[in-house]
C-alpha cells in the first residue's frame, strides 16, 4: 500500500511565496521617535494589500524600508527571498529596479515628454532603444495614455499625470509595486479609477502594496487591509472580510 501523500507543500506553492516579509521590524529615527514597532506581516506573490492608519502611523516609513530609503533599527525584512540587510549601498539601484514606486506628487520631469518620463527607468537600466520603445508603449497603453506620449506632463490633468507616474513605475516589470498615498491629490472619482488600476496590475500577477489613509476608498476596492496605529500593526483584514 502506498503512503498517503500530503498536499500541504503543494498548497503552499500554489498560494505563492512571500514577496514581502517583515519580521519584528522596528524603526527609530535619529531624533528618537519610534515610527514602527515590532511589525511582522507577509504579502504573498500576486497579492494586493493596503496599509492604512492615522497621519503619522508609520505608513510611509514602512514603504521607505522596503525601498531601502530607510533602514530598520531592529528586525528583518525579506524582499522576494532576499534579506534587505544584506544589500549594501552599491546594490540599492538593482533592488529598486525590482520595485515600482508611485508617489502622491508623481515626481515627473516637467520638461520631458510623457514618453521620456516613462522611458527613464529603462534608460537607467541599460535597456536597448527598440525594446524601450516597445515597453514604454505597452505601459502607456495599460494606463490608457498611448495617445499622449509626445505631450509634456503640464498639458495633462492631475489624474493623467498620476497615470504617467504609474506607467513609469510598471515599465520595468517590477516584482513589487508600492504606492504612497497615490490618490492624495485627486478628486474621489479619479481616486477610484487610480485604485482600480492598481487592482488590475494585481490581476495580471504583480504584487501591490498601497499606503492610503482614505478608508472609504479602501473599502470600495475590497483588498486586504493592514492597519497601523502609532507604528504598531493593530489589524490585518482579509479582502473577503472588508465591509
Ligand atoms: N526622517 C524622520 N525623522 C524623524 N521622524 C520622522 C521621520 N520621518 C517620519 N518621522 C516620524 O515618524 C512617524 C511616522 O511617519 P510616517 O511618515 O511614516 O507616517 P504616515 O503614516 O505615512 O503619515 P502621513 O499619513 O501623515 O504621511 C511620524 O511621527 C513622523 O513624524
Automatic annotation (TrEMBL):
Q: Which Pfam families match?
A: ABC_tran
One GO CC term on file: plasma membrane
Q: How does it sit in the membrane?
A: Peripheral membrane protein
Domain ABC transporter, residue spans: 20-243
Where is this protein chiefly located?
Answer: membrane
| Matches recorded under PROSITE patterns | ABC_TRANSPORTER_2 (PS50893)
Gene3D superfamilies per UniProt: P-loop containing nucleotide triphosphate hydrolases (3.40.50.300)
Show the GO MF annotations.
ATP binding; ATP hydrolysis activity; transmembrane transporter activity
Picking any one GO biological process from the record gives: cell division
Entry-linked NCBIfam families? FtsE
Record's PANTHER family?
A: CELL DIVISION ATP-BINDING PROTEIN FTSE (PTHR24220:SF470), IMPORT ATP-BINDING PROTEIN (PTHR24220)
Task: State what this protein does.
Answer: Part of the ABC transporter FtsEX involved in cellular division. Important for assembly or stability of the septal ring.
Quaternary structure annotation from Swiss-Prot or TrEMBL: Homodimer. Forms a membrane-associated complex with FtsX.
Identify its protein family.
Belongs to the ABC transporter superfamily.
Task: Spell out the protein name for this chain.
Answer: Cell division ATP-binding protein FtsE
Species in which this protein is naturally found: Rhodanobacter glycinis
User: Which taxonomic lineage is given here?
Assistant: Bacteria, Pseudomonadati, Pseudomonadota, Gammaproteobacteria, Lysobacterales
> Could you tell me the gene encoding this protein?
ftsE
Amino acid at each position: 500500500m502506498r503512503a498517503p501523500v500530503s498536499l500541504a507543500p503543494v498548497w503552499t506553492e500554489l498560494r505563492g511565496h512571500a514577496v514581502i516579509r517583515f519580521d519584528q521590524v522596528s524603526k527609530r529615527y535619529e531624533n528618537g521617535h519610534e515610527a514602527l514597532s515590532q511589525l511582522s506581516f507577509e504579502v504573498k506573490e500576486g497579492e494586493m494589500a493596503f496599509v492604512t492608519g492615522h497621519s503619522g502611523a508609520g505608513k510611509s516609513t514602512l514603504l521607505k524600508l522596503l525601498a531601502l530609503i530607510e533602514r530598520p533599527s531592529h528586525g528583518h525584512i525579506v524582499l522576494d527571498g532576499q534579506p534587505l540587510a544584506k544589500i549594501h549601498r552599491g546594490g540599492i539601484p538593482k533592488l529598486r529596479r525590482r520595485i515600482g514606486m508611485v508617489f502622491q506628487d508623481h515626481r515627473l520631469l516637467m520638461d520631458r515628454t510623457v514618453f521620456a518620463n516613462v522611458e527613464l527607468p529603462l534608460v537607467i537600466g541599460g535597456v536597448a532603444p527598440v525594446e524601450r520603445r516597445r515597453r514604454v508603449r505597452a505601459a502607456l497603453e495599460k494606463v490608457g495614455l498611448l495617445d499622449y506620449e509626445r505631450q509634456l506632463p503640464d498639458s495633462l490633468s492631475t489624474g493623467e499625470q498620476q497615470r504617467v507616474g504609474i506607467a513609469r513605475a510598471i515599465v520595468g516589470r517590477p516584482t513589487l509595486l508600492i504606492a504612497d498615498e497615490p490618490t492624495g491629490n485627486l478628486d474621489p472619482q479619479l481616486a477610484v479609477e487610480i485604485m482600480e488600476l492598481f487592482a488590475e496590475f494585481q490581476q495580471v500577477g504583480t504584487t501591490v502594496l498601497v499606503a492610503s489613509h482614505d478608508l472609504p476608498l479602501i473599502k470600495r476596492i475590497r483588498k486586504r487591509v493592514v492597519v497601523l496605529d502609532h507604528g504598531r500593526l493593530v489589524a490585518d483584514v482579509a479582502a473577503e472580510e472588508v465591509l
